[in-house]
User: Fold this.
Amino acid sequence: MVLAVGFGSALTAQTVPLIEDLTEVRVEVNGNVISIQRDQAIASRYSRQAKLPWNCPPDCIQPLIAAPGVTTIAELETIAFLETMVSTSLGLLIDTRAPGQFAQGTIPGAVNVPTAALAPGNPYLGEILLALGAQTQGGALNFDTALDLTVFGAGPSSDQAVRTIDNLLAAGYPASKIRYYRGGMQDWQSQGLSLSVHQNEG
Amino acid sequence: MIRIVVGLFVFSVILCAWIVIDPSGGDKQPDAVAGAAPAVDRLGAGVEVTREQPAQVETFQPALRSVTRVMAPSSTLRTGEETLDQTTAGILAGLGLDTGVPAPAPTDEMGQMTSGILSSIRAVTGGTPAPAEPSALSELVIGALRAGETDATIDTLVNEAASAGTVAVPNILVTADGRVDTSVLLASIVTQARVASGQPAPAVPDVPVDGAGVEVRVVQTSTDAQQFRFYTVNSGDSLGAIAIKFYGDAAFYGRIFDANRSTLSSPDRIRVGQRLVIPEL
Assistant:
């Protein structure tokens, strides 16, 4: 324990904030002060997230709950979502990473909808929401028939999925139809689960 | 002799003074920011140049809103959920030509990304936009085209059927005076057929600045000059026709609709005299 802290503080040049403007948490336990920091060198040994160096934002540790009403799920629930919702065309598994990362390997059955595509500035946002099953009703969108979505990104320290969920909610998508797979590609791969590669797709 | 010389001298002095002072001021903006000058010059005559702070740009919108609120809705045509692209694809399929793509690929990066996303979503959900069976409108147009009817006859047939309520038309085909703009439908058929046969999509046309109803405003901000185009709806215009006028393709109507959502509740609700913002593609 003492060794780990010493190792971490020796590499302070490579610490990353845990969340915005928070680089260290100090806690006193039994009279000893322990320090929690985030070290890139250690993280890169356990994480498969290729992008280095990390910066926070955007690579902040994400909260368990993305937004009120949005359920956070893990690997087994994601697989169950594929079995029950995606296979029956009632749901869609959304990979929010950039197209290049998506092409290199994603969860089988996932569709690439990069975070930028659902940002409020995209003039085609309405078209995507219609493709997700929303219907126009008197000039507004009705989401009663919209697909259930499971949204994921690179991993627990990537904000893409959470930003996508925020954008969906801002567009009126009901929180009850959205699930957040917080572990993302990082946790999926760390369990050795199957990947599908889309190298030849645009 | 001396009087003539003195008279000429006085005249030339007055002439020089007039040139230097230039009482009309011309259309030059002596204090214009150098970077903005070329853009302003290019627009030429008939262009209104406003030099305002960005915050004041928003005053356009409330003004537009108050104008359009006054006008009562007049649309009586039955409009359907089917889009122009779907109708066109249905007609072409009925004529034996598979368009493959439901819409011409947009040229901008975001548009290309979006069309890729849409096709991958549809690949999973199975929700292809092409109609499984042709709509009543498609069947009517296919029949008329097969019979070799003229554009004018097709226009009459479609308008009769639409006002009788026997066919539903895509809402961007509804004109400001409540008719069906069949010329846009026929143009869309030609465009999709061209794209399907590998020919390039129509280019964005040069819209004359002084064309009827077209208005260009340059709004000078602290960093750059932004150009806004406006179009005042004329009798007989549909949103599809306006998209063809400015972008060369009715498929881009969504850009205009999105930019005018505050004053336009639905694409079939455009009114004569309504002033629409025309965003750059």
Observations:
- Residues 1-12 of chain A have pLDDT under 50 and may be disordered.
- The domain at 71-190 of chain A is CATH 3.40.250.10 (Oxidized Rhodanese; domain 1).
- The first helix of chain A runs from residue 2 to 10.
- The helical segments of chain A are 2-10, 40-46, 75-86, 99-104, 125-131, 160-170, 184-190.
